[in-house]
Amino acid sequence: MLRSYALLSILLASAVAPLHCDELYDNKPVSHIEIVIDSPDGYFDSKPALAKLATQEGDPFSQVIFDKDLKSLSEEYERVEPSVQLKNGQVVIVIRVSPKPIIHAIDWEGNTQFSNSTLREELDIQPNTLFNRADFNKAFNKVKEFYFKKGYFESQLSYTVQPIEGTTQVDILIEVNEGRPGYIKEIDFVGFTKPEQSELSDQIYLKKYHFLTSWLTGTGIFRDEAVEQDRMTILTYLQNKGYADAKVDVNLSDDPESGKILVEIVAHRGQLYHFGKVDFQGNTLFSEEELEKKSTVAAGGVYSPEKIRDTAQAIKDMYGQKGYIDASVQYETPLAENDPIFDVHFTIEEGQEYKVGIIHVFGNCSTQSSVILRESLLVPGETFDARKLKAT
């Protein structure tokens, strides 16, 4: 209880202090404003900095306006340190600033796979320009991304800023630890049939590195983000094969001889699931037999989430062809209590029938609207047909 009380007292004191400070200076006349420069060469013209200030001598002081002034100065100067004092009932302001340094040179150290000129092009910051740390960090991150995209997933880059004594200039040294290139030597599928391996090899992003073609296609290079993407692709593939509980592991190891990466993709299939009862509710426009003809989901078939989604879309398209463009098809897949079986319940909200009204054509500059409308299969007054819209 004692600790809680002490913490509360500190927070209240912090909250009250700025309000007291505002009351002390606000609306008091500003008698003097001075800008002092911290510069090795000693030269500084304060007029441009003073011109940036909305706060002026003779004006009543406003904390809100002064905060905006400091923010404006911080965009141009490396450091801004204000001092505000009350003398004889008037406000005296002294602002100490440090100019942003000028980049004298940018040097690279440790890069062997990519030349200085290539990395300079990626950085896209030149000597004899102002050093803005925020802008430089953005450009520096582009160089990091460049290494990752080239497969150097272990690469580490850092930089140091070295002031040149007696000047406002700095040298920047960028140190590169490239690490190993992430070339993939082999991709081994464990727990998959040969046909499955063939299908998945076309679907996944990770590929085997080939010296003659990978430099052109960009394939065969390891990327962190591709591992999770491929894992989800394979997991979806197995679930659509009926393995609703499937898990997929992607294991990485190093080949001691070549230094390249070995990728092992392991399938844990689990139980094989099937479809049980399939029914439709809410349909009046189409009979259950008509809906079943469009359905790719059938009792006894191997469970597949993709087939359920495709069936729902096929039913929605059926309604769209009859003008029911806002028809909704929802589904539920309850699992049988003791068997690996999913029942599927489709619920249909048919909505209402729509007809084609006026057809407008926009954006045509070289072809008259009448010419375009002659190609339209949609006719005003007729029942809307989603197939005709797509064909048009």
Topology of helices and strands:
Layout: H1 2-25, E1 30-37, H2 47-51, H3 63-74, E2 77-87, E3 90-99, E4 102-109, H4 116-123, H5 133-149, E5 156-163, E6 169-177, E7 184-190, H6 194-203, H7 214-217, H8 224-239, E8 247-254, E9 261-268, E10 274-281, H9 288-294, H10 305-321, E11 328-332, E12 341-349, H11 369-374, H12 386-391
Parallel strand pairs: 1-3, 4-6, 7-9, 10-12
Antiparallel strand pairs: 2-3, 5-6, 8-9, 11-12
Write up what this structure looks like.
The protein has 392 residues and is of the alpha/beta class. It is 34% helix and 25% strand. The protein has helices at 2-25, 47-51, 63-74, 116-123, 133-149, 194-203, 214-217, 224-239, 288-294, 305-321, 369-374, 386-391; strands at residues 30-37, 77-87, 90-99, 102-109, 156-163, 169-177, 184-190, 247-254, 261-268, 274-281, 328-332, 341-349. Strands 1-3-2 form a 3-stranded mixed sheet, with helices on one face. The longest helix is centred in the N-terminal third of the chain and has 24 residues, at 2-25. The chain is extended, with a radius of gyration of 35 Å. The termini are far apart.
Q: What's the overall average pLDDT, rounded?
A: 86
The portion of residues forming beta strands comes to 25-35%
Instruction: Please summarize the sheet with the most strands.
Output: 3 strands, mixed
Shape: extended
Helix content: 25-40%
Low-confidence stretches: 1-21
Order of helices and strands: HEHHEEEHHEEEHHHEEEHHEEHH
Question: What are the defining features of this structure?
Answer:
disordered N terminus, alpha/beta, 3-stranded mixed beta sheet
